[in-house]
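Example: Syntaxin-5 N-terminal Sly1p-binding domain-containing protein.
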Amino acid sequence: MNFKKNAGIVLIILGIILTLDRTNEFKGIVSTIIYYLQEYWPLLITICGVSLLTTPQKTKKK
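Written out as structure tokens, the predicted fold is:
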């Protein structure tokens, strides 16, 4: 997948989460997500690094 597609997916999910946090059913979901991000941010960096390494390189045809 390319960067634009991944960024679009992330923005859609973020928008849904922020919308759900304003309802009574999902009270505090953003604080829970922030807690997990604070605890596991090195894992996110590792996953991004692995993703960049395993992405196939496009070669130009002459």
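The mean pLDDT is 76.
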